[in-house]
Task: inverse folding
């Protein structure tokens, strides 16, 4: 089922060597798996390092505390003002392991909530409208509902009539690359979670999205264990989320799979860590998910590539863990 006719090393594609600082929009299903919290911590560390800007965050799961929980993490890093959009489609299918605790302002400072958040399409459109051309990288680490809605939005989208461009036109003008934690490129018969969250959106994005896409598949982060060294759960909402997530038993901070951190890492730093090549990029082609499974057809003109292991899982974890665990450069 997986069609792959040779691997090409493409060190110069994607984030590697970018001259301009990327503006990142992180689109997350924050509230169930804890790797979303780790990915947001990693992105904040990259911004602290001056390697990226965080333009906004989109929440594709709509549990009642999700916006507050995302805002609590950003506030911890001194970025409480970063706007957070909420999916207009209610989706609360999974356990809410940590958001009710870290999203409660009585426990961790936050100033945004589901009640005050703009819908994700409106915020996506505003952020893209305000961004320089070809400057934005969107990183989706959950289902693809929100980017599908953005792609479908019309030029006269309610609430931002002055923008005057369709979602597709905004994406074509502003987005440099889309990075998706999605699919399974090693075992195509394994239905992947983020694809299954919204199969229609996943298939439509693969078929219609007008910029290059890089997929970080299930196999890339599954055995990369991170989070075990985050500390101070009474003041650090990242550490509290890991404490509440049952990877090592509730109440114990333990490492967990790093599906989402790999996508954020690639989007900002590219393929390497300290001179070590963590991943290769596949040859170009076209991914599709017509039945929820992962199909990839090689095509020199294709807009899609996917990450391929080139380092041990421990080496990838060593690149990610210190960034997740370090103290913020500034706090509110
Ligand atoms: Ca996720």
Result:
């Amino acid at each position: 089922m997986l069609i792959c006719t040779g691997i090409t090393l493409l060190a110069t594609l994607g984030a590697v060597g970018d001259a301009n600082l990327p503006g990142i929009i992180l689109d997350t299903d924050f509230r169930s798996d804890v790797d979303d919290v780790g990915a947001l911590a990693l992105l904040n560390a990259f911004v602290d390092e001056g390697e990226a800007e965080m333009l906004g965050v989109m929440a594709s799961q709509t549990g009642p505390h999700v916006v507050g929980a995302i805002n609590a993490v950003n506030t911890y890093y001194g970025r409480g003002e970063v706007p957070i959009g909420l999916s207009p489609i209610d989706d609360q299918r999974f356990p809410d392991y940590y958001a009710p605790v870290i999203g409660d302002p009585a426990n961790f400072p936050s100033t945004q909530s589901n009640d005050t958040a703009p819908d994700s399409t409106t915020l996506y459109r505003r952020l893209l409208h305000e961004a320089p051309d070809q400057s934005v990288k969107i990183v989706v680490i959950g289902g693809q509902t929100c980017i599908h809605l953005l792609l479908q939005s019309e030029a006269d989208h309610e609430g931002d009539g002055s923008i005057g461009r369709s979602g597709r036109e905004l994406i074509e003008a502003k987005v440099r690359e889309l990075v998706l934690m999605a699919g399974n490129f090693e075992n195509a018969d394994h239905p992947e979670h983020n694809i299954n969250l919204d199969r229609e959106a996943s298939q439509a994005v693969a078929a219609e999205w007008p910029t290059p896409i890089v997929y970080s598949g299930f196999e890339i982060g599954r055995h990369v264990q991170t989070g075990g060294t985050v500390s101070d759960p009474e003041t650090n909402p990242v550490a509290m989320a890991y404490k509440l997530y049952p990877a090592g038993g509730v109440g114990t901070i333990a490492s967990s799979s790093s599906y989402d951190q790999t996508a954020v890492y690639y989007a900002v730093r590219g393929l390497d860590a300290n001179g070590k090549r963590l991943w290769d990029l596949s040859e170009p082609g076209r991914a599709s998910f017509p039945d929820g499974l992962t199909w990839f057809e090689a095509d020199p003109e294709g807009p899609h590539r996917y990450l391929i292991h080139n380092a041990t899982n421990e080496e990838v974890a060593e690149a990610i863990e210190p960034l997740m665990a370090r103290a913020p450069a500034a706090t509110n």
